[in-house]
Specification:
246 residues; globular; 8 helices; alpha/beta; Undecaprenyl pyrophosphate synthetase; six-stranded parallel beta sheet
Length: 246
């Protein structure tokens, strides 16, 4: 019997996910690590659809970190091939679903084929007005802050929170309300260091290929039960919370 979807009193505008556990999922099944990454693409497809159905406006996922270049060369090569293949297969579906795609991260070191695929994927979905999907690829939070500081300095602007914020790689969307990490680890691993200053954190024991709609709903329900104070007291935010739940 299919479990009914819980009624959520509030849904985060922006959800960010560290998709961890592909390699361990494959290892437990005596499969090569790249098989776990392939299954992770299937999980991402499912998650994109579920987030859009639940009213999430922005989904940002950590697909490949700047530190992942240190992994075995065959795994890195397999990830690059998987990205190129996924772009060919998934972009038409994203376009049809009204989802707008952004790739966030440095494109230095990527092959011409991959860079062309990223650019084409963004162009194909640029006119869509549905959920925004940010795929962080060759991305690191420290890189993001450093590149933003360099842009501000090059423009000759004062170095302020506002000027840095405008120069960040995710300046086109609000900061994440909820950061989910799968795989049982409890760290953010250099992901959205600037943007997640006030994000609610949710750690799931599910490996990413096992993260389904029910697991997503668990995270969204946990978020709905959090009190977000942003430096204020409970008494100050209570009236706003009551109005939001009315």
């Amino acid at each position: 019997m299919k479990k009914s979807r819980p009624q959520l009193p509030s849904v985060p505008h922006h959800v960010a996910i560290v998709m961890d556990g592909n390699g361990r999922w494959a290892h437990r099944r005596l499969l090569p690590r790249v098989a776990g990454h392939r299954q992770g693409v299937e999980s991402l497809r499912r998650c994109i659809r579920a987030c859009a159905e639940r009213g999430v406006k922005v989904l940002t996922v950590f697909a490949f970190s700047s530190e992942n270049w240190n992994r075995p060369s065959d795994e890195v090569s397999g990830l690059m091939d998987l990205l190129a293949t996924a772009l060919t297969r998934e972009v038409p579906e994203l376009k049809s679903a009204g989802i707008r795609l952004h790739f966030v991260g440095s494109r230095t070191g990527l092959s011409d084929r991959v860079r062309a695929g990223l650019t084409a994927g963004e162009a194909e979905t640029a006119d869509n007005s549905g959920m925004v999907l940010n795929v962080c690829f060759n991305y690191g939070g420290r890189w993001d802050i450093a590149q933003a500081a360099a842009r501000v300095a090059e423009a000759g602007e004062p170095m302020t929170e506002e000027s840095l914020g405008r120069a960040m790689a995710l300046a086109h969307v609000p900061d994440p309300d909820l950061l989910i990490r799968t795989g049982g680890e409890q760290r953010i691993s250099n992901f959205l260091l600037w943007q997640c200053a006030y994000s609610e954190l949710f750690f799931s024991d599910h490996l990413w290929p096992e993260f389904d709609e029910a697991a997503l709903d668990d995270a969204l329900m946990a978020f709905a039960q959090r009190e977000r104070r942003f430096g204020k007291t409970s008494a100050q935010v209570a009236p706003n919370r009551s109005q939001a739940l009315a």
